[in-house]
Design brief:
Number of strands: 0
Radius of gyration: 21 Å
CATH architecture: Up-down Bundle
Largest sheet: none
Strand content: under 5%
Low-confidence stretches: 1-15, 420-432
Number of domains: 1
Oligomer: single chain
Structural class: mainly alpha
Order of helices and strands: HHHHHHHHHHHHHHHHH
């Protein structure tokens, strides 16, 4: 295998460092990005199938919301341990183990659903197991971005990863809805299992230039990350903003399947279209949010994003036809990606490389833990009163969080920023 044969052409055509597409100059990033796109499409197809299947198995809005939260609850419970694992072991091997485990569980889910052996509890248990794999994979994957691109291109790489995820959210849900209507949910689960294979192959062939981490006892390693985050005022503010935004945002995403089925009287295809509109809104915003953040600052972006998401909740609460519901989900996707990429970039730029996995896992545990708790809470409110009331309550929560721009503003551009250079990424690794 010749890894350098295409080097001159790639370098000649490469965008200037810091440009929106510059990370694609790095073969490692490009290969992982493409593989992750297909894996994310599979994951969104499975999410659609699991959520829709739960609406058929039980009338409880709370159980439907818990299926949506199954990807975030494990991050709350195990994310900090996953961060310590990412910093104490080879991150590539950690990702390989997580991807393989998710492939196996998704295969079991497909087989059980095909055989008619799935019930509400077993469905929730298996989706939680996939969520555990996601929790293990996420810190290692996010921390490994520094090994894939140069330092100047890190913010753009984070934005492109968000675009990949949201491209999957644009294509996957509609595709999942069609597959379910043509066959059944077992096909959606089986395709997700197959989608992990590409990422496993790419990771197996990737040979990053990386130093062997000095291992610490697990609890001591976790406490090192916790102490750093607790002692850093800029990071404390990022964590608080992620927590409150995630809690309110969960009201939209967790209740969307119930809105599609109960409030709109729609089908699985309608639900897929709503998720697709969410993804399109995310992609459209991810293309320019980096420029907006550099021009206006993170605080302005997060504040406007919160307002947009609150408005989307109010629109969805009053929607009784698909056009208004699609407009609401488009707006929600826009607000979601602008806020989440801004929080992620702020966290990465203020975390030292040797404890980056732990810092990111703490951020994810706080933010996605807020989403998991929010999904349960807003689902309970919907069962207690009704769906529109729960979404209006979530919108009110988003409005109340705007006070944080005064008492806990996002860090300024240079506040708490880590300037130490990460390890030099491998410029021309093995191609997939």
């Amino acid at each position: 295998m010749n890894d350098t044969s295409a080097t001159p052409a790639i370098e000649h055509l490469a965008p200037t460092p810091g440009s929106a597409l510059a990370p694609f100059h790095y073969p490692a990033f490009r290969a992982i990005w493409i593989a992750n796109l297909f894996s994310s499409i599979g994951s969104t197809i499975q999410s659609v199938g699991a959520a829709w299947l739960m609406t058929e198995l039980t009338p409880s809005h709370q159980m439907v919301a818990l299926v949506q939260a199954s990807a975030t609850i494990p991050i709350l419970l195990f994310g900090v341990f996953a961060g310590a694992i990412a910093d104490n072991f080879d991150r590539r091997r950690v990702m390989l183990a997580a991807q393989t485990g998710m492939l196996v569980v998704s295969g079991v889910l497909a087989a059980m659903s095909y055989g008619g052996l799935i019930g509400p509890v077993s469905l929730l248990a298996l989706t939680l197991m996939v969520g555990i794999g996601t929790a293990l994979n996420a810190p290692a994957w996010q921390a490994s971005v520094r090994l894939q691109v140069g330092k100047a291109d890190l913010p753009q790489a984070i934005s492109l990863n968000a675009i990949s995820f949201n491209m999957a959210r644009s294509v996957g849900p509609a595709l999942g809805g069609m597959l379910i209507s043509i066959w059944n949910v077992s096909l959606a689960f089986a395709l997700n299992a197959v989608s992990y294979i590409g990422m496993i192959v790419v990771l197996a062939r990737w040979k990053p230039v990386n130093t062997v981490p000095a291992r610490q006892p697990m609890l001591a390693s976790i406490m090192t990350g916790v102490r750093f985050c607790a002692d850093s005022a800029p990071i404390r503010k990022v964590l608080l903003r992620g927590l409150v935004f995630g809690f309110g945002a969960a009201g939209f995403q967790a209740l969307m399947p119930s809105v599609a089925r109960s409030q709109l009287g729609g089908t699985e295809i309608d639900y897929g279209l709503m998720l697709g509109a969410f993804g399109i809104g995310s992609i459209a915003t991810a293309l320019w949010v980096g420029k907006a953040r550099r021009r206006f600052g993170s605080e302005a972006v997060v504040t406007v994003s919160t307002m947009i998401f609150g408005a989307a909740l109010l629109l969805l609460a009053s929607a009784h036809a698909m056009p208004l519901a699609l407009a609401a989900t488009f707006l929600a996707g826009s607000g979601w990606v602008a806020a989440m990429t801004s929080l992620n970039v702020a966290m990465q730029l203020r975390s030292p490389d040797d404890i980056l996995g732990r810092c990111l896992s703490i951020y994810q545990a706080v933010t996605f833990g807020g989403m998991a708790v929010g999904a349960y809470a807003w689902g309970a409110v919907a069962d207690w009163h009704d769906l529109p009331f729960a979404m209006r309550a979530a919108a009110a929560w988003m409005a109340l969080t705007l006070v944080l721009r005064v008492i806990a503003p996002m860090p300024t551009r240079e506040e708490g920023r880590i300037d130490s250079s990460p390890p030099v990424p491998e410029t021309h690794p093995a191609k997939p």
